[in-house]
Amino acid sequence: MQNLDNDLYLRALRGEKVERTPIWVMRQAGRYLPEYRATRKQAGDFLTLCKTPELACEVTLQPIDRFGLDAAILFSDILTIPDAMGLELELEEGIGPVFNKPIRSKAMIDALAVPDMGSGLGYVMDAVGTIRKALNGRVPLIGFTGSPWTLASYMVEGSGSKEFRRIKGLMFEDPAATHQLLGVVTESVIEYLHAQVEAGVQSLMVFDTWGGMLSTSNYQAFSLAYMQQIVASLKSKHPEVPIVLFTKGGGQWLESMAETGCDGLGLDWTVDLAEARRRVGSKVVLQGNLDPVVMNTSGAQVATEAESVLASYGQHDGSSKGHIFNLGHGIQPFAKPDNMRTLVETVKAKSAAYHL
Prior knowledge:
Layout: H1 8-13, H2 34-43, H3 46-51, H4 53-67, E1 72-73, H5 80-87, E2 89-92, E3 96-99, H6 106-111, H7 122-135, E4 141-146, H8 148-157, H9 165-173, H10 175-199, E5 203-208, H11 216-237, E6 243-247, H12 254-258, E7 264-266, H13 273-280, E8 285-290, H14 299-313, E9 323-327, H15 337-350
Parallel strand pairs: 1-4, 4-5, 5-6, 6-7, 7-8, 8-9
Antiparallel strand pairs: 2-3
Helix pairs in contact: 2-4, 4-7, 8-9, 8-10, 9-10, 10-11, 14-15
C-alpha cells in the first residue's frame, strides 16, 4: 500500500490515536468553488464532467489544493449504477437528476441486471486511477456509493421527491418486488465498490440519503439490512478498507447502524455528538456534523460553530473510537469559499487540545 504524506483520516477511522481531528467535507468539490464552475463549463454539463476522468480528477483535487483537507473524495454521482443499468440519467437544471426510463412495472424489475463494471462504469475506475496518480500520496482517496434504498428510490420515482409515494407504495403493496429490486441493486453496489477498491480508493462511504423517511421497522428491513450485506461482503474481500455509513435523518438508529460491522457513522446536524458518542461507545468512529447553512454566514460564526462541534464530541480519552470533522450533509452551492478555509484552519488549530 502506498505511503501517504497525510494519513490522519485513515488512522482516525481505524480508531488510532491522532494528533488532531481530521477534516473533509461532503461535496467538497462543487459549485461553491469558482474553479469548479469553470471546469464544469469546460465540460459542458455535469454528466460529461463525471464521465471524463481527467476533468473528474481536476475537480477532485481543487478543494485539496485550495484548503488542505485531510482526504479527497472521488468526484462522481450516486446515480451512476442505475444509469449503467439502462435507466438513462439526465441532470435537468432547476430539477436535478431525472431518469428517462424509471421503474414502472414488475417486468422492468425482472429485466434488471448487475451492470458490467468495465463497459458500463469503467469511466469511474479510470477516474480513480487518474486521481490516485495525481494525488501522489498527499492524502487518501474516498470512494462512495448511494445506498440500495436511496438508489431504488430514485429508480422508481424517476427523480427526487418529497413524498416518495411510488417507492413507498411499492414497498407497502409488493414487498417481495421491492426486495427483488433492492437485491439486484445491492449486488451492483458490492461489485461497484469492489471495483473502486481495486482501482485504488482507500476508504468507502455509503450515502443513505433517503433512509430517514422510513419507519424503524421498514428502515431495518429495506435499508439497513442491505447496507449490512454490503459491509459484510466488502470486509470479506478488503478487510483493510474502512467503511462509513451515513443515513440522513437516521439519528434514532445509531445503535443498529453501529452493529453492521462498519468503521464509522456519518451524522447529520440534528444529532448531538456527545449523545451519539455515549450511545455507540467504542464501536465506531463518528463523522460530522456542522449544519451546512453555517457555511453561508460570517467567518467568525463558522469558527464559533466549528469549535462547538469539537467541544460536543469532547476529549479523545480512549473511551470511544474517535471523531472525523465534516458537515452534517453536503456543502451547498451558496457556501462562501473563504468560510471553508476558516473551517479547515479552525479545526486544525483548535482540535489538537482535544487529543492531549
